Batch of 2 targets.
Target 1
Amino acid sequence: MTRKLYALSGTDTSRPFSPHVWKTKLSLAHKGLTFDIAPVGFTEIPRLEQGATKIVPLLRDGEKLVSDSFDIALYLEEAYPDRPPLLSGEGGKAMARFVEGWSQTTLHPAIGRIAIMDIHDSLDPIDRAYFRASREERFGRPLEAVAEAGRGDLETFSAKLEPIRHMLKFQPFLGGDRPLFADYIVFGALQWARIVSPHRLLAAGDVVTDWFERCLDLHDGLGRSVTAA
């Protein structure tokens, strides 16, 4: 059975950059499941699978369609219980929910501001127009002004990682001795930045940097299959 994962990409379709897609790519690899990537632009998403979703990732697994990275993780855990666990029970699910909330309210906004022009410039013209209009409506100001604010985020970004920096002093992964979906959540955010932006958010010698390098090496180096910007 061929699985298809719809993944957000820019002009270079070999460089899918969505943090949520990367969570799912590592989740599928974690379960030992093969899949094909179907790159899509922002404006193509509403037409996928006869309007099945407004967001990616969207996974087709046989006759099953699942969107949203967390819902996909839940589906994989239920559909493939004989494979390595992604959530490791209710405690792991609860931890992942917390990590997702923290990542999307702390890391994602900062990365979005830091990389906003890099994301815009990586898109096809039709998607650039959509991205500019939708993000300027969201932020209430021009993209260039958002990018200017992102310079301050660069200076403070390292401090935002302190919760996982503390945790990684005791164990190699957020999941413990081995990675769980919680690791892939944070990895997805930092991989997004790594792929779309030349700004380097992680410093040498930081335990978070060491953890991120370990995550890049997981599943035969899946994270390294796309080079840094």
Target 2
Amino acid sequence: MTNERREPATTADERTMLEGWLDYHRQTLAWKCEGLTDEQLRTAAVEPSTLSLMGLVRHMAEVERSWYRRVLTDEEAGPVYYSDEDRDGEFRLTEADTWAEAYATWQAEIEVARRNAARFALDDTSEGKHRRTGERFNLRWIHTHMIEEYARHNGHADLIRERIDGATGD
């Protein structure tokens, strides 16, 4: 695996720091998937779990979509991979599911997230509300939550990648 990630400057302002760490963790997940076949990317961590690298990428596309479209800007953006009937649909993969599609969807959601976030100051409150709690969030909270979300799932990605081909690294 090649490592093209860059940590944010140690003296960056708060917004640059938060967005830098978010991008770092986005890049980490991409790096963990690098060089694998679709079949390997669909490989579940351990039975009976359906957790796979491709599933994690699809999940993060949904998470980006939820926080930066639905909550931050109150956009009516339905789910891509899951449904009310199958809340974990992003993790249920078939041979028809491809890395090219999952990666393109994820990157498109990241680009929308960046554009939407650019319209807000860190202290600005979201236009939308969380669908379960009805709460509003400021952009600082959303960025911090996304860093946590990626960091947690990158830990999963580390273990899955090591199981697939023995590759390790932070």
